[in-house]
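Two folds, back to back.
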Amino acid sequence: MEIKHPRRILVIGKPDSDISRVVKEITGSAPTPDASTGSLAGITHEWNVKTAYYTAAIPVWIDEITDTTAWKSEFLNPEAKEVVQAVGAWIYCFNSSDIKKESADDDAEVTISEHVEATMKAVAEVVEKACEMMWDGTRLAVDLTPANKGRSTINAEEICLDLGFEYIHIDATGKNEYGENLGMERAKEALEANEWSASSADDDDDEDNVGGMDDEQAQMNAELWGMKASLLDPDNEGDEEDDGKGEENHGFVVYAVEWKKP
């Protein structure tokens, strides 16, 4: 079965968190930074996935978070509700600057910083506000710190689990004591098992899609960044005529697009 209108993946992290590596591990190709800024914020990518049960071209949105409080405020805004509802999976990336160790020993117990906890709490709050208890998706927390076979990550795993995220170490390989995959193999496994259909319309012939998939894809990929640009520019009242083409500025598509559910 082809999923024609899949929900989105939103990958987030600080600018130094190597989001590009995570996206490449999942999709097989690295996203291209914005040519003018060198940033990945506002970039869209695509994951072509094929399983025994479905095929889909899943859009991957990328956002860089420099201020968690400001980011949360943007996404709690009513204008962001339908955008958040379009996200089927959240991937939060963090690195060694976000890790705490119980001692200086290389194999010391590892836990995560208050900043990481605050960001995961912010995501949970954003999803709950937009979707209430109806959201059915996947949330992954990907640790990009250098691998150390001797260290324990049980504490970090428990904190992530308590906040609704599955902890993934990007360099982990093999299986755990329960025979489950580790690392990015586990991440891809979790994403492949996710529910991507935006509505039951994916099970039927899409007779209403007269604009073609290219038009639909362009519109859907623009909606998040149009929303963010609108929120970041409080003086933008939408009085200027929209030529329908859009314009990129610092990683954001600067025209607002209304998301229409298929």
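---
second:
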Amino acid sequence: MKFSRPLLPISKLITLFLVAGSQVFGQSYADRQGDSINPRFYVKAGFYYPNLSTTLRIDGRRLGTEIGLEDDLGLSEDLAVFRADAFIRLAKNSELVVTYTKINRDRSLTLKEDIEFQDIIFEQGSGVNFNFDVDYFAATYRHSFFNNLNWKAGVSGGLRGVFINTGFEARLNNAFTSSKTDFMAPAILFGFHGSAYLTPRLLARYAIEFFWLEIEGVKINILESNASVTWFFSKSVGIGLAHSTNNYRVEEIPFGSDLKGRVRFNFGGINAFLAARF
């Protein structure tokens, strides 16, 4: 069963480019007069085009079938969804970053092969309606150990909340069956960040954050990266492009009595946005 990895090599190349650009261009521009990197607020909003890869398995008395939601159930791999980010300067060397996006997918289909989900076997030819909805929230505190006129870099720590709602409805042998569950994968991420004005109107940012934890048998692994460039065509308004990756793996999820599951959820892609600073 195919399982595509997130586009980490691309994001790493972009991140390395921005790190180098932050040092080379940021320092040369730092000694010139012009806009500084210290507005109180940055806000950006636009369309996010993630490529998604999701596998889900729920085990009951027996090992359940691992379902590739894109390959086996035909859920969309490529979407266009709304994404919003806000950057709030708290002090000279610190800021708060807040992000939100929502990814909803559903599908009605006739199964081409047998699938075991929980303790139910869906036979080939069964009709199934399936949904997998995600709300993604992020709040990150960033502290800059290096803070010059137009470039800065430092460490970050923040909260993540990935709220997943999934369920199915199916008709088996003229009998209607349905099941629904929702859960949250909370996490505290740590990482690094940097930003620089490459020119008076061109702002670059990068960040990479990660997390691993096991709580009461539930295992959570997360890796996130983001790199963006914003061009301000006026003093306060600009347009930009970003590339991000999000890799979530949650195991031993307690879905109920004698039921445990595993979710692998990867999404990443281009974000085109409008930006404002004030």
